[in-house]
Amino acid sequence: MSEITIPKRVSTALINSLSSGVTPRIGLEYMAVGRKNEIETLLNDLSNIAEGGSVFRFIVGRYGSGKSFLLQIIRNYAMDRNYVVTDVDLSPERKLCGNKGQGLGTYKELMQNLSTKVRPDGGALASILEKWVAQIQMSVMKDNNITVSEPKFSSLVEIKIMEVIGEMDSMVHGFDFAKVMTAYWEGCKTGNQERKNVALKWFRGEYSTKTEANNELGVRIIIDDDTWFDYIKLMSVFVRQLGYAGFLVLMDEGVNLYKISNTIARNNNYEKLLTIFNDTMQGRSSGIGFYLCGTPQFVEDNRRGLFSYEALKTRLATTRFVKDGIRDMQSPLIYLDRLTNEEIFVLLLKVKGIHEQHFAYKSNVTKEDLVSFMKVVTGRVGADELLTPREIIRDFIGIMNVLKQQPELSFDNLVTDDLLKTTPQTDDDDSMVFEI
Predict the structure, then answer these.
(1) Which residue(s) pair with 417 in the sheet?
(2) Which end of the chain offers a freer environment for a tag, N or C, measured as fewer CB atoms within 10 Å?
C-alpha cells in the first residue's frame, strides 16, 4: 500500500468519508477488497448492455454492508468503459412517484448527476449535447466535403439532425424530445445561449407548467411524475447514438420506499418500480441498466416491503430449489454476504496505508495489532450477524487518529483491554488465524 502514491485530494476524500461512515465517491480502487463474484456479475451486465441488452438488479444488504460501495465500484468501472452513468439517493423528496412531484425530483437529480469519463463528477448533460452537435457537424463535413463557412452547411446539418432524431419519433414522447434537441442546435447555430439554456432547462425537467414551456420553447409537453421514466429511456437511446456503450442508472436508499407510511402511496411507488422492472427485463428498453440498493427488510417484509406487492414478489422470490448457502448470481436479487475475516484483515491493511500516506507518517501498528483488533470486533456478541465493514473501518480509523495525535499511547492501550473483556481466553484459542 505504501508504495502506491495516492493524490492528496483522493486520500482526503477517502479519510473524510470513511471516518464519517459514508461511501467515498473517488479512490475506491485503493481499498477494494472481496466482492469478486458480485463484481463479475455486474461487469457481465455491462457487456450485455453494450450489446443492446438491459438489466435490473436489486443489491441487498444490511446498513453498512457495502451496498453503496459496490454501486460506486460499478459506477467507476462503467465510466472507464465509456458508459453514461447517473445516480440518485432516494429520500422523502425523491421517490418513484408522488403527489408532490417526488418522481420528478428523482428525475431532476438523475439529470444533475449525469456523468461520463470526461465529466465524472456529474453535470455532463450540456457536454453530451455539445458532443452530439459536434459529431453531426463533423459527419456533414466529412460526407459532403464542405467546411463550416459554406452557406449550405447549416441546412445540411439540419437534414442530418432530422435523420438521426427521426429514429426516436416512434418512441413514447420521442417527437417532443427530438424537437427540443433541434432547439438546442438552433441555439448553437445562431450563438443564442438563451436558446440553449431553455433546451437544457427542459431536459432537466425544470419546467413547472406546459404554458411556460410552450412560451419559451414551443413545446407543449413537459417532463413530470408520470412521464419521467419515458425520458430516461429516450436518453438511453440518445447517448448510445453518440457512441457511448450504454446508460447506467444507480439508485440507493431504496428503504425510503419501504418507509412510506401511506399504503396507497407506497403501492403506487411499487407499481412504478414494477413498470421499470418489466420494461427493462422484458427487453422493451435497450442499452440500459438499473441497480437499486436496499435492506433485506425493504425486500422481504410481507407487510410493507417489496414482497407485500404480489406482482413484485412473484418476480423476485428465489426459486425453492436454491438452498441456504447457495447463491444464484444471475437472480435479480444480489445479496451481499459478510466479508470474510481474511478480507477484512486485508481491508484494514489498506486503510492503514492510506492513513499513513495521507498524514505522511509511519505508524507503529503491526499486523499482529490488526489481528488483536479483529479479535475484539469479531468477539462481540452477535458480531457475525451485525458487524459491517462500515463499523469496522470507522472504529479502526478512530484508533489510528488517536495514535497519530497521541503517540505516547500504544495500540494495546486502546484495544487489548477491550479484547480481554469481550473474548474468552483459552490456552488453545485459534478462533482468529491469519497468514501474516
Answers:
(1) none
(2) C
